[in-house]
Amino acid sequence: TVTVMAGRAFEEHVAVDTPGACVAFAFEVSGGANAVFSIEHRTASHATSLALLPASSYSEHSGEVLLPGRGVTVLTWHNPSGWLFSSDIEIS
Questions:
Q1: How many CB atoms lie within 10 A of CB 36?
Q2: Which of 11, 37, 67, 84 has CA atoms 20 to 30 A from the CA of 46?
Q3: From CA 81, how far away is CA 71, in angstroms rounded?
Q4: CA–CA distance from 58 to each of 46, 53, 55 (Å)?
Q5: pTM of the model
């Protein structure tokens, strides 16, 4: 379980050494809250990046993404709660 404080983000970096690799993911946000989730792939040279799953709000989500080549894939969860309505989210 990961706790993401209000207004903060958590990133999971996955090194991709094999072309055609796949990353699978599944998460649930506790307490009926939502997290903004996205997946981005950065080439090995970090010269370019590609949004594999554009940022969108979810309370839970699962799936698989085929990776376009070597590099680093970044899964990002963002807690959009502001300081006025601050609430942490838990991702498992």
A1: 14
A2: 37
A3: 31
A4: 28, 12, 10
A5: 0.87
Residue written as token pair 């959009």: 80
- Closest by CA position to 29, among listed 38, 37, 18, 21: 37
Q: 28 falls in which pLDDT band (50, 70, 90)?
A: confident
Q: CA quadruple 38, 10, 86, 88: dihedral positive or negative?
A: positive
What are the φ/ψ torsions at residue 30 (nearest 5 degrees)?
A: -75, 160
Query: CA 50 to CA 31: how far, in whole Å?
Result: 32
pLDDT digits (tens, 9 = 90+) for 42-77: 988 878 899 999 999 998 999 999 999 999 999 999
- Separation of alpha carbons 70 and 16, rounded Å: 5
Element (H, E) at 14: strand 9-16
pLDDT at 91 over 90: no
